[in-house]
């Protein structure tokens, strides 16, 4: 395994895990984990908006990293070219 393969696989796993976590943090119709966190941290509606915007930004960045690392792995290592030994 080459260092590039190891780095790209680690990046893919970390961004995928982060993507799942941050998607689950998003609120669905006002009853989500982010609403519970935001309501305990902020008492006004503007605080909730800021938390949601930050969650959106982080989720988009993680999705872009995930897709780019997946595309790089597909280009550099086409199907059947990675050897275990």
What can be said about this structure in brief?
With 85 residues, this protein is mostly helical.
Note the beta-strand portion. Answer: under 5%
User: Quaternary state, please?
Assistant: single chain
| Structural class category | mainly alpha
Query: What's the total helix number?
Result: 3
Radius of gyration of CA atoms, rounded to a whole number: 18 Å
The number of strands is: 0
Helix coverage percent? over 70%
Average residue-wise pLDDT? 80
Report the uncertain regions. none
Order of helices and strands: HHH
> Looking at the structure, what is the overall shape?
elongated
Biggest sheet details: none
> What is the straight-line distance between the termini?
8 Å
Please give a structural write-up.
- With 85 residues, this protein is mainly alpha-helical.
- The protein has helices at residues 3-25, 33-41, 45-76.
- The mean pLDDT is 80.
Give short descriptive properties of this protein.
85 residues; mainly alpha
Topology, element by element:
Layout: H1 3-25, H2 33-41, H3 45-76
Helix pairs in contact: 1-3, 2-3
